[in-house]
Amino acid sequence: MNNQQRKRHYRITYQKADGFRGACFIAEENAEFAIIDFKLRTGNSRESVICVDVQLGKDWVRAL
After folding, report:
1. In three state form, how does the secondary structure of the chain look?
2. What is the pLDDT of residues 11-64, one digit of tens each?
3. pTM, entire model
4. What are the strands of the beta sheet with 49-56, ordered from one edge?
């Protein structure tokens, strides 16, 4: 099985210390791995994460 087929799309909404809000889209196996990938890619802390949503079909559902 292709490794990409087991991954889901996650949307991580975050806020920086200066008040800037953004979203980061990551494909991972689960929400915890998505947060780790987010931290490594952006250099932001776990505390900056507001919410994590997973894409299920056309909808986004809260994962964390």
Report:
1. CCHHHHCEEEEEEEECCCCCEEEEEEEECCHHHHHHHHHHHHCCCHHHEEEEEEEECCEEEECC
2. 999 999 999 999 999 999 999 999 999 999 999 999 999 999 999 999 999 998
3. 0.87
4. 21-28, 8-15, 49-56, 59-62
CB-CB neighbours of 47 under 10 Å? 8
Report how far residue 28's alpha carbon sits from residue 11's, in angstroms, rounded to the nearest whole number: 11
Contacts of 3 (CB under 8 A, 6+ apart): none
Centre a 10 Å sphere on the Cβ of residue 1 and count the other Cβ atoms it contains. 5
The token duo for 39 is 């931290």
Residue 27 tokens, joined: 């494909």
The residue type found at 23 is A
